[in-house]
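Fold this complex.
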Amino acid sequence: MLTGWLLRIRSLAFSILLHVLAAVLLLISFDFSAKPIQLPPVDNVNIVDAVSVDKKEVEKELKRLKQTEADKKAAEKKRLQELEAREKKAREKAEELKQKRLQEEKKLAEAKKQKELEQKRREEEQKKLVQLEKEKAELEKQRKLEEEKKRKAEEERKKVEEEKKRLEAEAEKQRKAEEARKKAEAERLLQEQLAAEQAELQRQQDATLLQKVAAAITRKVENNFNKTGLEEGLSCKLRVRLLPGGDVVDVSVTQPSGNDIFDRRARTAVQKASPLPVPEDAATFERLNLRDITFNFTP
Amino acid sequence: MRITFSKTVALLFACLLSISRAQAIEIIIDKGVEDPIPVAIVPFGWSQSANLPPTDIAEVIKSDLIRSGRFSTMSEKDLPQKPTDFKSVNFRDWRLLGMENLVVGQVNLAADGTYEITFRLIDVYKGKQIAGFRIPSNSKQLRKTAHEISDIIYEKLIGIRGAFATRIVYVTLNKKPDGTKRYALQVADADGYNPKVLLESGEPLLSPAWSPDGRQIAYVSFEGKNSAIYIQDVQTGKRQMVASNQGINSAPSWSPDGKRLALTLSKDGNPEIYILHLATKSLTRITNNAAIDTEPSWSSNGKRLAFTSDRGGSPQIYEVSVNDGRTKRVSFNGAYNAGPVYSPDDSSIAVVHGNSGVYKIGLLDLSSGQVTTLTDSRMDESPSFSPNGHMIIYTTTGASGTALAAISVDGTVHQRLALQNGEVREPVWGPFLNR
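Structure:
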């Protein structure tokens, strides 16, 4: 509606401008229809380049011109008046249209506004609904989170509790183990002490026994050690291996005297004395370490 | 803390126990016995199926070893087996008998009549051979070969060369039914076998002496009514008179180098000791004393002479240095010490040791001056060392007459030597013969 209006105003202005332009062109065209004029330089310009012409002609011409001009002007005035009338009529029509349109527009706007209001209301309702939904969902979410949190907390609690129980059980177990270990250690120490005492007793008995055994062996070997014809001052060492029961199984000279005969007599003495008088009990024999005896012959 | 401590103690104790267990016990043998050494001589094998060898080698060896007093053997019937080589020996059997050593061997007669004797001396308890030899011989030398084997056995089991393969010289006296006396100078094996008469005489033969190489014998003979000193070759019988001075010519003794004789001469009025240089027949007077000096004997090192002198009032032993004549009395025990003979190591002198009319063989220790009597008869004379110094041969006179006897220098073994008829005097043990 507004566009139509503006369009009408613009066309009116445009026609006016067109008229003016036509008039101007009419005025100028004469002057310029003459021969071209060399324009003087600007500083010594003569406002009029007078040409000598016949005055009457001129006046006539002028009068005719003036008439023409006046005709023209009158036509123009009339055309203008018509134009103005037409324009007034158009204007009035336009105004009427405008009013009508304005009213329609107003009505339309009113309707639109109503519609918009309705729309807005509906939108708002919708919005409200969405909001409600949203709030509801949010609430649900919150509830769920809360529940999850609670569950997790419960789980955590249980876990902690279990760990606590486990640790307690572990501690108990360790305590018991430690108790048992201490008990065993005490027992072991006692046993060790007993064993040591037993061993010491055995050792003392063995030492006495060993002396007796050694004396008996010495006697037997000395009785078999024949010094006949041997020179004085010799000595040698023998390593003798015995079996339980005293049988001599091996004799080796570990430190010779330098005199083969002396060494041989010593070796023979031990071998002839076999079996050497050792305890009959094999365990005692082993305990006294009689498997391996060194004999030192130093007559 | 206390627990740790007692634990440490227990641990330490265990360690000590294990250490003491690891150590072998040591037994010290500082005594022994002086017993004869057991050695069984198994009869030697014989290569011929027929006959027997002319000499029972094993028997000769056995007698030698027994006579030395240092061995005990077994009679043949007691032998558990009679192996003739090493591989046949059953050591267990011999050990059960306590037989320490075993001698096995074989006598082989070759087609050319020569003999070869193989023997092995075996250590029964070790199960190893101690010595093994193969010795060529002949029928007349078999006894000598057996003595040589005895020498080797002696050396391997005692440590000193045996003196079985040596000879002795002595004088015998036989009284004939018509009242005449026959003196004989004889040489025999050390065991008395194989006597050989070097010289017979109706007049006394005295004081035989071996040359160091065993080839000659010096002696005193009264065959010319007066005493004279002769040297006679044992092998050839050839002899020469080396001293025939006025008065006494007696008691010759060879120097160890064989070049001189020490002897007793009274050519200057009184019995004195002289040295006769055999090459030049020159004399060196050693003693010069109013008393009787006689029976000179060379020390083994040739530096000294021992002799008998009564310059101290009774017969005693003196030593004189051959070089400077310095003389000292060495015997102080007893009223009578005479007839000195140096032991081969010059550590002692064998003497006739007399007290109250009883004469025994004594051993004068030169470091202590003490005399140890070795015999216990009433009339023992003329001691002479075996060349290894282990035995002394001498004469002993009893109710049945005078006989040869031997004794070990440790006094443990007395042995009468089997000899032929008659009285035996002045035995002298010869030197080692070269092997």
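Confidence is low (pLDDT under 50) at residues 1-22 of chain B.
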